[in-house]
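Model: You mentioned two targets. I'll fold them one after the other.
Researcher: Yes, keep them separate.
Model: Target one:
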Amino acid sequence: MRIPRIFVGTLHSGEAEFDECCQMIADQEDVQASQTVISGKPELEAHNALWDAWNAAKDSFDLFVKVDADTVLVDTQALARIADLFAADADVTGAQILLHDYFTDGPIAGLNAFSPAVTFTPARSRLHSDRVDTNHKTVLRGPAVAELEPIGYHCRYPHAIQAFHFGVHRGLKRQHDVLHRVAEAWRQHQDDARGWALAGALTARSPFMRGGQDYQSRRLQRRFKRLLADTDERQRRVNRYVNELL
């Protein structure tokens, strides 16, 4: 039986977990994993570069798994278990498998896998640039993949701007359930990383932040530096926001 050939696509913008992410991919067993890293680009351009890289290489691979730089696979058999899902049913063209997320201290969507049958078109939305896969037959999610979850760890030890970016992104996407769970976890642990995530989500309410979700955004950088310089004000804002959420 031939070893599955897996194209692993990774978007990288300085996340703290990047080295561990790459090492775990390199350590995967019973698959032939080849990682392509897209670094330092805004989200829209990064996703389109990744789709282009996959479209150019897909004839040489059995599977495409997107593992971002803030994600560390759970063990050295993770990709083999994903490959088994596709090998068991030729109609399976996609899988969405939950990660364990630091910020919410619980499950979160984050790892997606695709067969070569799936078509990717250029993204146009800067906020939803990962929603461009088409030509699916069967996509496995929920109970169908529950035995594999969590398939990895999301943001195990985020640095401050990474956490702030997470909050801005979730806030702009209006993912209120996620932010509610972040607030619950922050109230229990009172840690800086979750505090920064909540500060980012609160910042995302400003019309000034529309279109400012990229790490490279001057708007995001300015707001982050302003809050970094005034710890007391940031803490007051986070406390008020958590009381509002909960």
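Model: Target two:
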Amino acid sequence: MNILLYLIPIALLLAGLGLAAFIWSLKSGQYDDLDGAAWRAIMEDDEFPEEPGEAEKPKDEDKPA
């Protein structure tokens, strides 16, 4: 039962640190644009080729000439 004298203050300290980190993340704008990252992940970048030499390659490489 004496262990509770150590565990309860440690648990309260960790909870306070978690709450402080959450409040800091709110104030620093971490949750301002929730949809932006999701859309950037699925948008295609057609303007930029994946590899430097890919823009010069013909699209129909499989077809015989």
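Researcher: Noted. Anything on target two?
Model: Residues 4-27 form the longest helix (24 residues).
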